[in-house]
Write a structure and sequence with these properties.
With 158 residues, the protein is mostly helical. The chain has a domain at 96-156. It has helices spanning 15-32, 34-49, 53-61, 63-74, 77-95, 98-119, 127-135, 137-156.
């Protein structure tokens, strides 16, 4: 009589067969998505030519240390202040119409040019020159604007 089976042998693919199957899967994927693989290879080539591939590899290997350093720096007060200031500035920029911003910047450039030309003059402005300047409607308008701005700032600082 025959002996009873006590052990079951697995008849799965050998290591060589598994490797051949994986290689075939890679070939099929490459043939199907060749443009994506070509772009990836081109990207790696450009990184290597620029000398950045080694830096990227090092950064990936040190990702935990980089993340730890980044988070430590991120939590510091100067960084949080900068982020908060950027958010407030972006809020101001989103609430201001681009036409207003463009007009203000244009006028600031023109005014800076005028002020630069005026600063080259050696003429001394005395008390009477200041009194005369106060009667100029443009100077008066600018002073009124500046004083109103300063008054509003002062009220908000209480």
């Amino acid at each position: 009589m025959a002996e009873p089976i006590s052990k079951i042998r697995e008849t799965g693919p050998t290591l060589e067969e598994q490797q051949a199957e994986h290689l075939q899967e890679l070939k099929d994927a490459f043939a199907k998505e060749d443009s994506g693989f070509k772009e990836m290879i081109e990207f790696v080539r450009l990184l290597n030519e620029a000398g950045a591939l080694e830096a990227v590899n090092s950064a990936v290997k040190a990702k935990e240390e980089i993340a730890k350093t980044f988070l430590n720096e991120w939590r510091k007060e100067p960084t949080t202040n900068a982020i908060n200031n950027l958010m407030l500035t972006s809020q101001l920029l989103t609430e201001t119409k681009p036409e207003q911003t463009e007009a203000i910047i244009k006028k600031m450039k023109e005014t800076a040019k005028q002020a630069e030309e005026s600063a080259k003059s050696e003429e001394i402005i005395g008390l009477f020159g200041l009194m005369k300047a106060l009667k100029d409607p443009d100077v008066n308008r600018a002073l009124r604007y500046g004083l109103t701005f300063l008054k509003g700032m002062g009220e908000n600082l209480k």
